[in-house]
């Protein structure tokens, strides 16, 4: 009686890694340098190739691996005498849909960029992200950026307090867990660069962009959410750099979170793909002089 692992070995897969409920390995039916890009369920054989956006049954995997038609793949697996469990369908977590905000909300954002230009960010850079000051409503007294999805729908807003009166530095409207910011502007840049930097805030992103480093994704906090993780798996970049805040002189929150994020990413990516590089001598890139940021990432 064959197991799912036996089938994978017979198909020619190597360096099969045990990841709890799944096996992970490099897909051999296409070009890939990621040895964990292909996920196969141990019990039912269902697979998910994140980078290629391909998923299906074990028979489907046999079909594309051996370049057979579906009937031939069924005949191939029938000889292996394997019993597969059915995919789990019950008690799945509820999928939270992102709210779509009316485009008219953009009219409330006044293109006043003094807050950022005084911090060394050019008007050309900050204007690209369609932000500005809001004087009424929930985001009153904040410099607000709209957040878009891949269809250019508005799925949220994030605002930095500019009054100095609020205890909350950044305020968010929308399902933050679904945000992949600012991929509406830099998806192609990341793919061409074949690398990405993960940072905590839009302020860090703007500082990097101003210095010519345009392949960052904002995590909006100290964790890498599922949407960002799945996006990283689909893009399958050569290098992922975790650059959270350097809190070594305070509470070490950013430093500890960076190590935790790295451990999570190493479940899906090779060790040579993931690194931690915290701002040196500064708490974050928003504090680091623009002329030093580019040098920092060139080292």
Provide the fold topology.
Elements: H1 4-11, E1 17-19, E2 22-25, E3 38-41, E4 47-49, E5 54-56, H2 58-66, H3 70-78, H4 114-117, H5 123-127, E6 132-134, E7 142-148, E8 154-161, E9 170-174, H6 183-193, E10 195-199, H7 202-210, E11 216-218, H8 226-235, E12 239-242, H9 253-265, E13 274-276, H10 290-298
Parallel strand pairs: 10-11, 10-12, 12-13
Antiparallel strand pairs: 1-2, 2-3, 3-4, 4-5, 6-7, 7-8, 8-9
In short:
The chain has 299 residues and is α+β, with helices and mostly antiparallel strands. It is built from 10 helices and 13 strands. The longest helix has 13 residues, at 253-265.
Could you characterize the architecture of this molecule?
The protein has 299 residues and is an alpha+beta fold. The chain folds into 3 domains: 75 residues; 74 residues, DNA primase, catalytic core, N-terminal domain (DNA primase DNAg catalytic core, N-terminal domain); 116 residues, Dna Topoisomerase Vi A Subunit, Chain: A, domain 2, CATH 3.40.1360.10. A 5-stranded antiparallel sheet has the order 1-2-3-4-5, with helices on one face. Strands 6-7-8-9 form a 4-stranded antiparallel sheet, with no helix packed on it. Strands 11-10-12-13 form a 4-stranded parallel sheet, sandwiched between helices. A hairpin with a 7-residue loop joins strand 6 and strand 7. The longest helix is centred in the last third of the chain and has 13 residues. It is elongated and about 70 Å long. The N and C termini lie far apart (54 Å). 34% of the residues are buried. About 2% of the residues have low confidence.
